[in-house]
Amino acid sequence: MLYIVGTPIGNLEDMTLRALRILREVDVIYCEDTRHSIKLLTHFEISKPLYSYHEHNKDKVGPEVIQKLKSGQVIALVSDAGMPGISDPGQDLIRKCIEEEMEYTIIPGVTAFSTALVGSGMDNHAFTFEGFLSRDKRQKKAHLERLKGERRTLIFYESPHRLKETLKIMGEILGNRQIVLARELTKKYEEYRRGSLESLLEYYQNNEIKGEIVLILEGSSEIQVDQNPLLEMSISAHALYYMEKGFTKKEALKCVAKDRGIKKSDIYKETLDL
Predict the structure, then answer these.
(1) Closest Cα to residue 46, out of 63, 68, 28?
(2) In the prediction, which pLDDT does 144 show?
(3) I want to staple 167 with a disulfide (CB 3.0 to 4.6 A). Which of 129, 183, 195, 201 is the partner?
(4) What distance in Å separates the CA atoms of residue 272 and residue 25, rounded to the nearest whole number?
């Protein structure tokens, strides 16, 4: 059995009793950063073998985890903060379990984006979580272009050193919408800063920012009458459109899947000749 265990995003009092019991019972724990997770385990007096599983080693370590599960070991996966599988490679491990028909179960915990959304006061009847925008400026712009007509509230994760660039590009592409920046959630210096994209950019041009950031952005108020013309193309032509703009095939397929609201695997066969 693989347990996907949610952990606190800042305040250790948010650790659930069930999560603590599971971490004490498993044979092995995998985490993003052993240096970070050892602090959590030490705080709760849990002593278990601890191994790293992260974006840069997932292709090597993922199969090792599956083999341990097949041998009968009980394993827990935790992230540095929040729920594994949300904007981290835990998702890949879950897919491997599905492919190999291995059992897994979710031990729910705190999630930064839902906490920020509720605290923001923005409309939460319908929203879309977009995770981290690309570090590549071209891809970041393409991502935001696709969201131009999205009427639901938009949620992003962002790092402090990329914040100003992101706010600037958002303003250029999406217009001067209302936004809430949530920072250091559940921690001592928790903060919600509200205003327009323009006003927040001006503020952070003159003020330093630290900590984990969630951006809650107002959806479009414009009714989009015209359908995206790219959707009228064949899937191959749609992918080629992005590739001609400099995207790799992998990036192009991701864009096509996003535009059409389908899985990337569903369009792969139709683009083998590209």
Answers:
(1) 28
(2) 95
(3) 201
(4) 46
> What span, in angstroms and rounded, lies between the C-alpha atoms of 182 and 215?
6
The tokens 């904007």 sit on which residue?
Answer: 87
Q: Which amino acid is at 242?
A: Y
| Mean pLDDT value across residues 116-141 | 94
Indicate the length of the chain as a whole number. 274
Query: What does the alpha-carbon distance between residue 57 and residue 115 come to, in Å, rounded to a whole number?
Result: 29
Decide: 26 and 204 in contact? Cβ < 8 Å. no
The separation between CA 77 and the C-alpha centre of its own chain, rounded to angstroms, equals 17
Q: How many CA atoms lie within 13 A of 22 on its CB side?
A: 24
- Specify the amino acid at residue 29: I
Cβ pair 102, 67 in contact under 8 A:
no
- Give 206's contacts (C-beta < 8 A, 6+ positions apart): none
Q: Quick one: pLDDT at residue 222? A: 67
- Exposure of 144 by Cβ count < 10 A (0-12 exposed, 13-18 middle, 19+ buried)? buried
* pTM score of the predicted model: 0.78
